[in-house]
Write a structure and sequence with these properties.
The chain is 33% helix and 28% strand. The protein has 301 residues and is an alpha+beta fold. It folds into two domains: 230 residues, Hsp33 domain (3-Layer(bab) Sandwich), CATH 3.55.30; 53 residues, Alpha-Beta Complex (CBS domain Like). 41% of the residues are buried.
């Protein structure tokens, strides 16, 4: 692989890869563009951009297999750190996310890297809610290990889904610019022999600084380099995008969901209401007359 950075045509894309004739499943994602969009929307500090970018990539790995338009996965991380709650939602390749404190700043770690673990904290859980669009959503939770997010996703897969996994997530930030963002998920499938597992373990250090590796090569070059001799095959490509589906209609439903009494109290203040979407920061203003119409509708429904 080249050892100097080069101009790469970045794609917001997830590669679905098999190794050793289908014995191993790999998801390899480039999320640079959508992480930049999240950083622009939320005016993220460098450490918040690193945390939210990692979360977006991990959520994409959980959501890309969801083809039903009503299905979605929500990942929430509460670690007790100064960034507060992190939340991401994915449906297929469409993703959105927010952080409670997007401007959090912390000193760099001794190794010169962003202190994502310090921002997130370790006193809490990663929660994954899979909503298939019918029946009760499935909720899985595991305790946070490091707050660095990749290790926490790996623990979730291993403990909650009983699927041993290698996970690497990374975001390389320069000021307000996301240079690279992405990640890899490696999962041996049932029947995978021990010698293949041993080979994956030996190669795992190659993935750990994935955001810097991405400055030298695109996903396919990385795949061919990292898995040389393991017969890597791309079986599917999923485009990824930052997309929020909020609308005035959804905000109206949120206001109605407050209940008639609380809606009546807002109307009595005669100052209207302004709602801001957590995920895209779009604002929706409702005058008192709008609220009265919603209350009238709720009363007759």
């Amino acid at each position: 692989m080249n050892t100097t950075a080069k101009e790469i045509n970045r794609k917001n894309e997830m590669l679905h890869i098999t190794l050793k004739g289908g014995l191993v499943r790999v998801l390899l994602a480039d999320t640079t563009g959508l992480t930049q969009e999240a950083a622009n929307i939320h005016e993220l500090s460098p450490v918040a951009a690193a945390a939210l970018g990692r979360l977006l990539t991990g959520t994409a790995m959980l959501s890309v297999g969801m083809k039903d338009e009503k299905a979605s996965v929500t990942v929430q991380i509460k670690g007790g750190g100064p960034i507060g709650t992190l939340c991401a939602v994915g449906h297929g390749g469409n993703l959105k996310a927010y952080a409670d404190n997007p401007r959090v700043n912390l000193p760099l770690k001794e190794n010169g890297k962003l202190d994502v673990g310090g921002a997130v904290g370790t006193d809490g859980r990663i929660s994954v809610i899979r909503d298939m669009g019918f029946g009760e959503p499935y909720v899985g939770q595991t305790a946070l290990l490091s707050g660095e997010i990749a290790e926490d996703f790996a623990a979730y897969f291993t403990v909650s889904e009983q699927q041993p996994s290698i996970v690497a997530l990374g975001v390389l930030v320069s000021g307000e610019t996301i240079l690279t963002a992405g990640g890899i998920l490696i999962q041996p499938l049932p029947g995978c022999p021990d010698e293949v597992l041993d080979e994956l373990e030996l190669r795992s250090p190659l993935f750990q600084d994935i955001s810097r590796e991405m400055t030298f090569a695109d996903n396919e070059e990385l795949m061919n380099d990292w898995f040389r001799g393991m017969d890597p095959v791309v079986i599917e490509r999923t485009p990824l995008a930052y997309l929020c589906e909020c609308s005035r209609e959804r905000m109206e439903k949120a206001l109605v969901a407050l209940g008639k009494n609380e809606l009546a109290e807002i109307i009595a203040d005669d100052q209207g209401a302004e709602l801001t979407c957590h995920f895209c920061r779009n604002q929706f203003k409702f005058e008192t007359c709008d609220l009265k119409a919603l209350l009238e509708k709720a009363t007759h429904d």
